[in-house]
Amino acid sequence: MGRSKKRTATESDNEAPPVQSSEDELPVTKKAKTKSTKKEKVAVKPVEEDLEEEELEEVEDFDDDDDDDKGWTQADLLKLFSRMEVHIPERDKSKFESCAAKLDWNDIAFDNFSAADCKLKWAAVSLRLRRYRLLKELLDDAKEWVYKPWTNFYRSQKTNRHPKMPKRPLSTYMLFYMEKKDKVAKERPNIEMTQLSKIIAEMYKVLPEKQKKKYVDKAQVQREEYTRKMEQFYEEFPELKPTKTKRTKSAKEYPGPRKPCTPITHYLKDKMEKHSNEPESERQKLTDQYKLAWKELSDKKRIHWIKMALEDEERYKTELAQFKDANPSFADQLHKSVLNKEERALYEKSIGKPEKPPNSGYSLFSRIMLSSEEIKNINHKDRMTQISSMWKNLSPKDKRKYHDKVQQMLEQYKMDFATYLETLTPEQKEEALRKAGTRRKADVLSGKKKKIVDKPKKAAAHNSDDDDDDEDDPVRTSKSSSSYPVEEKVELFKGEPEAPPPSAFKLFQNEFLVSAKKIPEANRVKDSHTFWNNLSETDRSKWRKKLQDAKTKYISKYENFLKSLTQEQLKEYSIMKTNAKKIKAEAKSDGEEDEEDDHDNDEDDDSDVSKV
């Protein structure tokens, strides 16, 4: 820690650049990069080699500095810090530099160390500590630093390693890189370092296994040598050996049975079994290759792994039920299906389940247009906007054609679905009906008796040729003509307040369906749209205000409801909500979307319901 190392930030900034040892080569430094121009021809110098050289110099700085000092030992340093601490004024609140400058170094000097020696030594040590604090605080850190004098707060953890600690060996690829970099740099003198790395990486990828083995063996020898040197290092410095802490089981870890795997996970496990002896780097490379192969797998072959995943899921459900019986206090967790939407559709198609058609003329039109070349050439974010505009430009007669086509598809779907149900076991049929929304959620929810709040039923489909049944109006079928799906009911816990409608239009519609007794019940839903569109902006604002008041009252009631629950009731309520979310997630994966809620969300902006 020589005196030459002490310099201020100003001196460092104004320091002249180092003299180049060669006119043809410049060192790769941050200054050289910022001041270089495109016209300069800078020879490529490997970044890795530079970092290693700089790192070694930084680690060895302390040892070099000791040669210039007057033999400062640990005891001498601790004595210096203690004498400085005694001379710090009481209630000192000044910067450490100001306080150190005011000390009487003649009183601090001791033994063979003069006042100047002590002052210079402290200046050198302070450069390695976290500054911008009180001198007393720095001295506390300095006393700990004495036992690790190679460390520096302003350097990375990597460069703060012990100077005698062996360096980690290079990997197989880095050995190849270090061997080829000079040759590639010489062939392309003006190439950037990033491009150089890419070229060598491509060379390594296509390297034959026989040639690659040379680097693998060399890396293995270096790793063994590194392990041997590290053992010797820890024998010499046992206090630096990291202590292995026994891993305790986290409270957040899942305590139940092994969770099921997805189809691709089963596929990868099967393929990677024959590569168990490969190096980790090669295994990762093979895993990436098999992931790409999975995407190209035919539907017929993919079905095999989908069925395997479903069997694993059934195994998990069985074991989970047994585990819950043995552990009554176990809180069930929301389980995500092992199949994604695409895999679920593929499996259901393989077992004969008919595909659900669009539920409105606009949905059918959108599906057709999204697969057309005209729309594929449009920006992804603008496609639906373009489709909406195209739909608006259609004549009522053309729109009616799409609505009529949807009606035909829905009728055919109902017959095909009924046929499909006949092929299922009673348990499978019940599950299929539950997912289709034809059974009340209360059949699958356990716990306290719940209050049922009925929503108004949907009206029958109308056959007029006007535009009132535009794209945001799903085609509605009467209850007598279809039971797929029926309107869901909202389950409320005992004492739970009913939530207000999600939009001003929905609030208006609910009251309209009850009060418009002169209008036939089958036409009320349709007419509610017309009446809403004819309202003035002032009247709509009144409904918005009414909705806001209802939401405010609901929040207050809901808070009081939660406060009134006991711990057991709160737990039951939480389980009920979790199960409800699980059912909703399963229904969503089957493509069972609640079109009425989608319509309500569109109405949050209180735009005309006949618009997109």
Q: Tell me, briefly, the overall form.
A: extended
The oligomerization state is single chain
The largest sheet, given as strand count, sense and whether it forms a barrel, is: 2 strands, antiparallel
Helix content bin: 55-70%
Please tally the helical runs, counting DSSP H or I stretches of 4 or more residues.
Answer: 25
Termini Cα gap: 75 Å
Low-confidence runs of at least 5 consecutive residues: 1-69, 438-488, 591-612
Strand content: under 5%
Give me the side-by-side strand order of the main sheet: 1-2
Mean pLDDT: 73
Question: Can you count the beta strands?
Answer: 2
Number of domains: 4
| Element order: H for helix, E for strand | HHHHHHHHHHHHHHHHHHHHEEHHHHH
Cα-atom radius of gyration: 38 Å
Helix/strand structural class: mainly alpha
Can you walk through the features of this model?
This protein has 612 residues and is mainly alpha-helical. It is 56% helix and 1% strand. Helix 12 (263-272) crosses helix 13 (280-295). The chain is built from 25 helices and two strands. It folds into four domains: 3-29 and 38-145, no CATH class; 172-240, Orthogonal Bundle (DNA Binding (I), subunit A); 263-326, no CATH class; 352-605, no CATH class. The protein has a two-stranded antiparallel ribbon. It has helices spanning 9-14, 30-35, 47-66, 74-86, 96-102, 105-108, 115-126, 135-145, 172-187, 193-205, 209-236, 263-272, 280-295, 299-326, 341-350, 361-370, 373-376, 383-392, 396-422, 426-436, 504-515, 524-533, 537-564, 567-589, 595-602, and strands at 451-453, 490-492.
